[in-house]
Amino acid sequence: MFKSCNYCRHRKKKCALDGPWASRCTECEHLDLVCNFSRRQPSLKRRKTSQRIASRVSAVAAVASASNPAEEHRWASTGSIVSVVKDGDSQLNSTGFTHPDGQKIILKDENSDIPDSTARKYWDYVHPLTPFVPSEMIQGGNESLDPVLHECVELSAGIWLHHNPDADLPQRASDYLALVTWGEMSLQCLAGALLMMLRFPVENDSVQRVFGTIRAALLNGDELPAPILAGAIVTNTWLRLVGSPLTPLDTPDDFLMSYAQSVNPSTFAHHYLRISNLGLSLDRLRLAEEHDGLGPDANLSWCRLEYECLFWAVQLPSSLLDLRDEMPARPEAITIHSLHNLVVLSFYATVLSRQDTLGKLLALRPVPGVLHYICSLVRSVFICPREMLIHWAILSDIQATTARIILQLWRQTQFENFRGLLNLWDDALDRYPELAQEVREEIGSGPWTIDQTDGYSVFWTFRDLRSLHLEDAVPQLAAGTMSSPIPFVDYSYSAGQQSDSRA
Description:
By secondary structure, this protein is mainly α.
C-alpha cells in the first residue's frame, strides 16, 4: 500500500506519483526535494486515547462516589482519581518503588440485597463462579443443608467478586478448612471444600487430605457426582500449574468439556471450565513428554494446544473481555484473563526451555517477537489489583509462578525487559517472601533499559502471525472444533441426567 513521503506527511499534502517509473512524488519533483520514505512511528495521540478515556471514566466514578456513598462499591480504590498505565512494557526503573504507576480499574456491579437463604446465596454468588455442588445437596431450606456445606457456601458467598469481603474472611476460611478436613470427609464436605480451595489460601495438609479422599474414591471405583469431580479436576489442575506437588487425577480426557456443556455459556463458570481444560491438556502433555519423550503425535498435540490457546479469547462474551491494561474491566474478566495468561506463559516457558526437542518440533525460538509477546502477558498478570488477589487467592499464586517463569527466561535469554517486569511484581499478600528476595537479588538495583512497545499491538500481531504459521504447518488445525461454540445442555448439575434444552 502506498504511503506518504516524509515531506508530504509533514505538510499534510496528498502524496502522488506520476507513474510506477517515477523516482519522486509530484510535490518533491516540483520543489526538487529528496523524496524519502521513513518508517512511520505509532501515533502518540492514538496510543493515549484509550488511556484518557479510562482516566475520565475513573475520575467521573470517583466524583460520583464522593457525592453518593451508595455508589462507592462499584469501583475499586486505585489510590488516585486518575489512573494511567503506560504503554506496553514500560514500568518503573527504580527499586525505590514496588508498585506500577498505574492501577487496573475494576468495574463492579451494584450490590443487591443479600439474600437470607444460604441456598439462594449459592445460586446467586457461588454457582456462577464455581458450580461444584450437586443441585440435590442445595435443594430445600437452610435446615436441610449439611452443616459443613452450609458454612462453606456462606464463606464462599462472602467473596463474591462484586462484594467487599471482610478483612478476616480468608483466615476464617483457612482455619475452617483445616478443621473439616481433619476427619473423615463426606461428599457434602468434599463439595464445600472444593468451592473454597482456589478462592482462599489453604494449608498444604488440608489440600493433601482432600485429594487423598478423592483419589481413594476413584481407586475404589466410586462414582463421584459430576459437579464434585469437575471441581476436583479444576482445583487439581490449577494447583499443579502453580507448582503444587499434587499427583494428577486419572480421569477421562473429555470430562471437563462435557461438563462445561451443562453450564450456561454466558456465565464465568462455563469459560472457567474451558480454560481449566486447556490447563489440564498442558499439564498432561508436559507429563507425557517428561516420562515418555515426544511420541509420533506430539507435534499435532502441542500445536493444537497452542492454537487453541491463541484463539481461546475470541470466544469469550464481552463481559469477560479484558483487552487493554489501561481500560476498566469487570472482576470476572480480570480473573479469567490471569488464568488464561498462566496457561499461555507456562506453555511457552516449557517450549523455550526445551529448545532441542519441543523448540525444534514447534519451530519456536526465543527471538525478540516471541519475548515481547510474553512480556505483554506478564505485565497484565502483574498489574492485577490487590483486591482481586483477596477475592481469588490463586491469582496471587499465578503472579508468583509468573515471576518464577520470567526469572527462568531472564537467565536463559538475558532479555532486558524481563528484569524490568520482575521489578513490577509485588508480593502484595506477603505469601512469597523468599521468592521476592530472590527476585530482588537477581534483578539488582536498576535502573534498567526498557524497550517500550505497544503491548496491545504486540499481543494481536503475534497471535495472528503465529496462528497463520500453525495453520500452514499443520493443516488439521484449521478444521478443529475450537471455532464452533459448545451447545448448552442442561444436566441439572447431576451426572447422567441430560435434557435437550439449549441456550
